[in-house]
Amino acid sequence: MKRYSRRTFLTGLGMALSCPAWMPRRAHAARDVTVRVGYQQYGTLVVLKHSGLLERALAPRGMHVQWSEFIAGPQLLQALAADAIDIGETGNAPPVMAQAAWPDGLACIGCSAPAPHGEGVLVPAGSPIQTPADLKGRRIALNRGSNVHYLLLVLLQRAGIAWTDIHPVYLPPAAGRAAFETGRVDAWAIWDPYLSAALVDTQGRLLVDAQGVTTNRQFLIASRPFADRNPGDFFTLLAQVRQDCVQWAADHADTLTTDIAAGTGLSRPVITRALAQLALQPAPLDPAVVTEQQDIAATLFHAHLIPTVPDVRAIVRGA
């Protein structure tokens, strides 16, 4: 079976890293002075960013945090492969795809509890589509290689529909919403906060979410070089900060909603709904979670979305 190289991985995802801030570092100290963290508009890291807890925890060590926002998990993991960031958070499918392409480059250092209501498939309010089986022959917008790619794949498989029986339209979230609102697609597979935004602000109807299909966990991923350079107590500290963030979010819910709304340009009702679906509570990287990810890997391989089935256990580290 062909093994994709790191260069192939970067080229295949099709992302141009032209921003000077994303240029790889040419030399590394024994411990990183600046930790470069990639986050999305959905996930535990966006809450951690607003809390300031990580900065306060690292300050006594003389370490700083540099935050970079990404539109989706595949783009974030490409930046990780390019040494543009050190740590990032994505859903459950992108790390499997990245590991299959870059088997020696990742370290999985943490995960969250399940959040199955944080992703789903939307259809227009007046659509005749009532079940996943009705998606046959339809045009469906989705972000290639993301969590919802896997979600849609499994939904179709359970309905007895081949991937070739639909017309996938690969679009990032903003373009996906535009296509959905203008009727250029029949359905849209998407995650929060874009899912909540469409439900609150448009005539979208939730056809199905991930409940009973996939856990939609968030995974904290580090580049293996970064993990190897830093001592284990750094990841212990990171795990503690993530745990502390759960209580911080509960104590500052109103401020957090306001700040994320301001940062994303989305309304408070949208952010309130999205945060309600988010599982902030960290979960252990135990054998059950590894089995979940290994099953995802097998599914993606048999669907010809990855070239080989990676051993998920090989990248898991304590956090």
Automatic annotation (TrEMBL):
<keyword id="KW-0732">Signal</keyword>
<dbReference type="InterPro" id="IPR010067">
    <property type="entry name" value="ABC_SsuA_sub-bd"/>
</dbReference>
<dbReference type="Pfam" id="PF13379">
    <property type="entry name" value="NMT1_2"/>
</dbReference>
<dbReference type="InterPro" id="IPR006311">
    <property type="entry name" value="TAT_signal"/>
</dbReference>
<comment type="similarity">
    <text>Belongs to the bacterial solute-binding protein SsuA/TauA family.</text>
</comment>
<comment type="function">
    <text>Part of a binding-protein-dependent transport system for aliphatic sulfonates. Putative binding protein.</text>
</comment>
<dbReference type="GO" id="GO:0016020">
    <property type="term" value="C:membrane"/>
</dbReference>
<protein>
    <recommendedName>
        <fullName>Putative aliphatic sulfonates-binding protein</fullName>
    </recommendedName>
</protein>
<dbReference type="InterPro" id="IPR001638">
    <property type="entry name" value="Solute-binding_3/MltF_N"/>
</dbReference>
<dbReference type="GO" id="GO:0042626">
    <property type="term" value="F:ATPase-coupled transmembrane transporter activity"/>
</dbReference>
<feature type="domain" description="Solute-binding protein family 3/N-terminal">
    <location>
        <begin position="34"/>
        <end position="252"/>
    </location>
</feature>
<keyword id="KW-0813">Transport</keyword>
